[in-house]
Specification:
By secondary structure, this protein is an all-alpha fold. It is built from ten helices and two strands. It has a single domain, classed as Rhopdopsin 7-helix transmembrane proteins.
Length: 267
């Protein structure tokens, strides 16, 4: 009922409503007590060595992000813009998403080779790039080209600020994940609200369902890292499966974008 009412409003009122939700979430996070980094965070289940690679499962599974990222970059490079202005905005945001995804794979492999707070910063800083770029892509396709491309550098700066705030809090021995958690979670919530309030030109239901399902599964795999590793006879850990399910989610985004472009070319 509320969603139907909001959908019938103009673009600006809907954007203001989404912005208001983000402000409420920010205030709520600010009222929470400090959330310190778990001291056992770096104690992952898989500590096996393969071909001289320490913690091989988590390191090698990180490369799935690099593979999908490279496939995405090739996709962007091979597509002529359908409409010069809209095509350029789409290409910039999409390239940022897949380039960032490749960086996530490199940073994740670097971190998991020798897990530490110092290395974790690079992993977390990289993770924000594809997340923010995906929000930009969704805005370009559903809200408008200008809004989507203008918001991209703002979101990227916000993501880096969140990672830096956490890093500085660690250096000051006052660990606090609140700002980082907000900068990672709020854009995902904003993207879901945009999808619900701004009808798209394409049928994305199946793609979004797969992506959200993979994201949810990845969180569970991360939480039950040790339990999954034990249940699977120490063949693959929950954290490694987290990497793989998120890579599947990213590949689903690639499939969705390919279909969108194919539909645009057919028009």
């Amino acid at each position: 009922m509320i969603l139907d009412t909001l959908r019938r409003q103009g673009r600006c009122p809907r954007l203001v409503w989404i912005f208001g939700v983000m402000v409420v979430v920010a205030l709520g996070v600010g009222l929470l007590p400090k959330i310190p980094q778990d001291s056992a965070y770096h104690a992952f289940a898989d500590t096996s060595v393969w071909q001289g690679i320490p913690r091989a499962g988590d390191v090698v599974s990180s490369l799935a992000f690099v593979m999908v990222g490279l496939l995405g970059i090739r996709f962007v490079a091979s597509l002529p813009p359908i409409k010069p202005e809209e095509g350029l905005a789409f290409a910039i945001a999409t390239f940022t998403f897949f380039f960032g995804l490749a960086l996530v794979g490199i940073a994740s492999a670097y971190y998991h080779q020798n897990p530490s707070t110092e290395r974790l910063f690079w992993d977390r800083a990289a993770m924000g790039i594809p997340t923010m770029a995906l929000v930009s892509i969704i805005m370009i396709e559903r809200v408008g080209r200008r809004a989507g491309i203008v918001i991209l550098p703002v979101l990227l700066a916000l993501s880096v600020a969140g990672a830096l705030h956490w890093e500085f809090s660690e250096a000051a021995e006052a660990s606090d994940l609140r700002v980082y958690a907000f900068t990672q979670g709020a854009p995902v919530l904003a993207a879901l609200l945009i999808v619900m309030l701004f009808p798209g030109r394409h049928r994305d239901t199946n793609f979004f369902a797969i992506t959200i399902g993979c994201y949810g599964a990845s969180r569970l795999f991360e939480i039950f890292d040790h339990e999954v590793f034990a249940a699977l006879s120490q063949t693959i850990s929950g954290h490694s499966l987290k990497h793989l399910t998120l890579a599947v989610a990213a590949y689903t985004v690639l499939r969705m974008l390919r279909e969108h472009r194919a539909q645009e070319e057919a028009r």
